[in-house]
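Running this now, will post back.
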Amino acid sequence: MVQGSTMIPRFYLYGEPHRLVEEGFVHVENLVERSRAGGWHIHAHMHAALNHLIHLDGGGGAMVADGRTLAFEAPCLLIVPAGVVHGFDWQSESTGSIVTLASQYLQDLGRRDPALGLLFAEARAVPLGTELDEEVGHFSARLLREHTCAAPGHRVATDIWLAAIMVAALRALDPDERSVAAAKPSPQAALVKRFRALIEERFYRREPVSAYADVLGVSLGRLQLACARILGEAPSDMIDQRVMLEARRALLHTNLSIAEVGYALGFADPGYFSRFFTRHAACSPRAFRQASSGA
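Update: finished.
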């Protein structure tokens, strides 16, 4: 049975069958090579443990990310976190480079500077001024060069140039966003982060919040208090929101029946799934799909 995020096409690199990702995986390629063959259109898909950092130095287009459409134009950096359903419509002959890096690699960098983690908090387009664009262009060219050779020290050089691109992106963000990212998370914030990660693994099981608390090794009350203080939300609402995100993804991007979507998300009764969706979306799954398709 199809479960969770497997309802959406899931690739290693785009078009390649999904497989386990090495912790230190970094891949660099020319945007033209990846996009021209598909007529400058990349269909909606996801990567389970791979993130994109795309430098666009010519052209523009639009990115669809979990139902949002983000228009962009060069020069900019496009950031796509792992797990986000995304696709692109590029302007013809857009130019740039695509860096794909493992989530574990990103986490290792984040331990050295937690502010870097903000970059991949959500899919976004980060505009670049002329000076930063020139810097990122230089860093990207050096990164691509290191990726295509096996010269002594190329692994370290890869780390250097990739970190330089990420620092440039961080500095292009709004100052208020940077200050939030620099703050050290509290124990409650750290617990909420762990809870969110666990939701990603188990949301389709339809388990009670107490089961999550058991896995996290905390009391139900402690988890509820942390979520209330950090996010102002109940843990059950966070789980439901994740289920709704996946339900919307499936209704938008797959041909599964409404009953099949419900089964994949852990609902044994299609009627219960429809009522759950309607309660949260203020419309039925069928109405949502019809409205989204323009039918």
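Residues 187-293 form a domain with the Arc Repressor Mutant, subunit A fold (CATH 1.10.10.60). More later if anyone needs it.
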